[in-house]
Amino acid sequence: MRLALSALFFLAALPASAYPQALTDPMRPPAFDPAGSASVDAASSRLKSTLLSHGRRLAIIDGQTVPLGGRIGDATLVEITPTKVILRRGSETEALLLLPSAEKKPSGRIAPASASQGETAR
Fold it and tell me: Structural domain of residue 79, as residue ranges?
């Protein structure tokens, strides 16, 4: 009896952090929806990846794999390139970019270092 009472006292004194907690997967994408994204609105869609190979053209939009000509929400996938896809909804089209925040800048040619600049070629 005395042992059970001291064990009960010990367990009551444990901090809340010692109790089991739900574990989350650190590799899970932030917008993961285990139920699926079947009702995704094309206007809020984001392009995650494109796959172009001989005989196959696929895009991954909000976790859904959509083939060329397939549908996402109420839009149809009409074009796939390595960096963007085109969705058509009625007479309107919308482009989804793979890296929408990437800013393209013209690259200047970088001249190779020459031996006349103090470096020796080996």
Answer: 38-98
Tell me the β-bridge partners of 49: 60
Task: Count how many domains the chain has.
Answer: 1
Measure the CA–CA gap between 89 and 68, rounded to whole angstroms. Answer: 14
pTM reported for the whole predicted model = 0.49
Q: In angstroms, rounded to a whole number, what is the distance separating the alpha carbons of residues 55 and 67?
A: 11
Torsion angle of alpha carbons 71, 41, 95, 51, nearest 10°? -50
CA 20-25-26 angle, 5° bins: 115
pLDDT tens digits along 88-110: 999 999 999 987 776 666 666 66
16 in a structural domain: no
Q: Does residue 4 fall inside a structural domain?
A: no
Partners of 71 in the β-ladder: 76
Flag whether 26 is in a domain: no
Rounded to an integer, what distance in angstroms lies between the CA atom of residue 46 and that of residue 55?
24
